[in-house]
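I have been asked to look over a protein record a colleague put together. Alongside the sequence sits a line of tokens, each denoting a local backbone shape. I have pasted the whole thing underneath without changing anything:
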Amino acid sequence: MGCLQSLYNEKELNLSQSFREKLIWAAKGLDSGDRLSYLAYQLYPYLMEEMKREEANHNPQFLKAKKYLEKIRWRYNVGSVWGWPFSS
């Protein structure tokens, strides 16, 4: 979550208010015990919209956050797929 925190704190990026609110929502969810995979699943579309909004997709902080969320989502999907055949 450190890359998302640095993304929120970066003043040069001019993030939209809705994306800032989603980042705060994710941080509160993490503090309240929500699963990181759930938060990444919810936050990823908003990150992609924010990257499309301006030329932010060339910013290394956006790319780092995107890779981080994709990695968490990938782990969740693999865990779900491999857990399904072995459940009774």
